[in-house]
Sequence to fold (633 residues):
Amino acid sequence: MTGPYDTLHRQSLSEPETFWAEAAQAVEWSRGWDSVLSADEHGRWEWFAGAEANTCWNALDRHVRDGRGDQLALIYDSPLTSSLRKLTYREMLDQVARFAGALREQGVEKGDRVLIYMPVIPEAIVAMLACARIGAVHSVVFGGFAAREIATRIIDASPKLIVAASCGIEPGRIIPYMPVVEAAIEIAGGVPKTCIVVQREACKAELKPGRDHDWNDVMATAKPADCVPVAATDPLYILYTSGTTGQPKGIVRPSGGHLVAMAWSMRHIFDTHAGETFWAASDIGWVVGHSYIVYGPLIAGCTTILYEGKPVGTPDAGAFWRVIEDHKVTTMFTAPTAIRAIRREDSEAKHLAQRDISSLRALFLAGERCDPATLAWCEDTLKRPIVDNWWQTETGWPIAANPLGIESFPVKYGSATKPIPGWHVQALDPTGLPVEPGQTGAIVCKLPLPPGAASTLWNAPERYHKAYLDAFPGYYSTGDAGFIDEDGYLHIMTRTDDVINVAGHRLSTGAIEEVIAGHPDIAECAVVGMPDSLKGQAPLGFLVLKAGINRPPAEIVAEIVKRVRDTMGAVVAFKAAIVVSRLPKTRSGKILRGTIVKILTGEPYGMPATIEDPAVLGEIERDLKANGLLSVD
Ligand code: COA
Ligand code: AMP
Fold:
């Protein structure tokens, strides 16, 4: 029997232009498109070419015009600073228009890049929307990254200005941000020349005269700026994500397609509507924060929650339920790791029993594979639909989910349910042929990708091609492997590259290896993801020392751990490494990371045919056991 999902999914693939033209009616355009779907001069697909719209207009101005001025746009709930701030759509618009004027006064124009390095405070969202208002392209850098990561992004995106805060706040410690910004600017060669800094009470920054401006000062004198029309194919933002090397990939989000995808997904996937309250417990530094803290909920006319706290410890494992009760959250989004943290501390959900979460209709989980035990606990505890949804920074919105706004399917544990309309997902064998249902293959999406998905990388269109399009001509390679079962459910099982997933954060083992290799005592190294009951995976380093180094291994490991943290940032959570005498390699010199992972997880690995010296695997196993990283049987 064919249900509404089948009809929509089929139509989205057979008549994509009709399908997305209809979806685009939810957006207010200042100029209509010449074609819904076309190819640019490089042959890349593009949506709504010729059309113009402003994302900030669609997120704020139109709602104020339509009578939502007094509705809350944003609730900032911060257990870390014991503060609560509420901003209506009118107040938000006022702030954003003024900050947009302030950016202009600092010389930022349409197309210029602005780097935002801020914790989850309302000013961060104001800054993002202000960029959108004047057609500037923001690039938000997650607060847990250190100077070198910011510098890489400055060098690639060449921002005209940085918007920062004086500090971030983590449980038990305050992280001054300006020394990090200072160091990043120095690495990047002294650019950019202008910073606007939000001074937070917890720790004020010393501002550098001539370069740094206090947020309050620029806001006090700024003239509000109007929205400018932006081509649908112009970038709204660049968001860097981990690839397989130390050079992150600058994902470019096309503004018009993104508007359409946000409006469509809020309704059809999240089943959340104007006037309701949406909470993505994430960070604006990640794609989930961009799409579902900032743009999706505001474009849909919802109230969005900005939560500066943790699932546990701020103050306890009942924090999420408290926020749902206090703000009458309708729809919530978080990562499975956050639920694992809560479950570990409060497995009987005693905190939940003290709260009224009757407003909550559904919980969406993404960022990593949702393990069946976590899903089962959520279902038993919350007694509401729990929706595992799968997507990536590149796509900007879910590729697969249980689309509650279309049709609700029975849940299968370990599956993100079905491909969303617009996404033609297949599992292919290495020759590019579809595998049988239930058989594992490379998960790909047939081109063109739907509106909102990135079709290029900033400054690196060839890298986009190489990373995503070359492996299977006509398809976008997701880098994930998995299978589609006989009922059409998609099961994402693992990555096919050297990317690991730590607490829902995507990290490149290659980037960590580059930092380790810079240590003077290291001859070579490998980093793999080891299973972690809280974070899913945790990075583990294998270090081969240079000949003649006789210092205690523990001392070298401690230096390496500090080096990775100082260079890349605390969020990389690199805490464990062991010294080994050599690494398992193929005869051509490729490190057999996959085999190391299998040893770690206790999976049978078979002897790789191309291995240089089989004896090394026994040595690795022995070293892991000696370091307590494998059970001794
Ligand atoms: N600024 C500075 N440092 C930060 C930071 C930020 N914005 N965010 C995290 N860090 C630091 C943490 O303080 C921690 O430092 P530590 O090693 O000194 O303890 C380190 O980076 C790792 O942080 P985190 O991954 O948050 O681990 P945790 O052990 O502090 O907490 C969880 C574990 C599960 C509670 C936490 O990872 C979590 O809430 N995850 C939710 C995941 C999520 O939102 N993912 C986004 C995709 S939906
Ligand atoms: P990011 O770009 O940081 O959002 O990371 C995207 C990657 O995280 C995906 O390619 C997957 O490997 C993984 N991922 C995200 N959500 C899921 C999910 N629901 N199930 C399985 N893997 C997921």
